[in-house]
Amino acid sequence: MSAHNESAVEARFRRLASLPLEAVGGSYRFTFTGIAQSIKDVTDQREMLGLLVKRDLKSKYKDSALGFLWSLARPLVQLAIYFIVLGQFLGAARGIPDFGIYIFTGLTAMGLFTEIAVGGTGSILANAGLVKKVYVPREVFPLASLGSALFNFVVQLGVLIVATFAAGHPPLHPQILYAIPSLALIVVYGLAFALFFGALNVYLRDMQYLVEVFTTLLFWASPVVYSWQMVSDLVQNPVVLELYTNNPLTLAVLGFQEAFWVAGADMAQPDDLLLRMVIALLVGLVLLLGSHRVFLRLQGNFAQEL
Q: pLDDT class for 19, splitting at 50, 70, 90?
């Protein structure tokens, strides 16, 4: 190498050494300022987030003839099984008017939570190539799972609304507003699950399977295929009934039923449902902040672990 080239290389290294170091994905303090900075970093990558959502949706239904209509296949098959087996054969439909609408309302709500929680838990591993090569705020991957889940939810909700009109009981009543806090509960708790278990799943790969089992338990612990009134009639211990009722997913399902299951207006519901939902939502926001804090603490070694 000539003396001229050596001096050019040395000059380049000196220029690089003089540049200030910038922290990439630095730690955020658990303060309002730190949280605001973290949110800003994510919103600055909103175009990347949009591309990830589109990629997730396209990859699920790539080269399929029916495309996004497949997002309805699973809930419709579940509806048929629960309606026929539980509703007709086992008699669960007795005492529950418009049982098909009742079932599909719960399936729509719980399907959204399951897709957010399970998809978000596996999102970091599913995007291992990007995590190892490019820096973006790691939260965009669970948020992309949330975005694709919301898209599928909107499709299912549209079918549910059409079904209510076909059944002759459209949700044209003030209780339709219950859908807002119900959706907020599902999104907040689902995202908290996705952030917390998504980070742990990088280090302990069994977390994804644990979340799948846990969401199945939560499904059966919510009044989707049976009514809350059945539980209140069977459970004699008031403490147990309160614990069951104040489960955030139970409240979310009950809220969706208030909004879309018009035929069940005369069915018994827990007292102060809206107040319970607001309290659960506040608790969920605290849980979401805690989960985000854990995610930020663990994200520093994601690339090395992957």
A: low
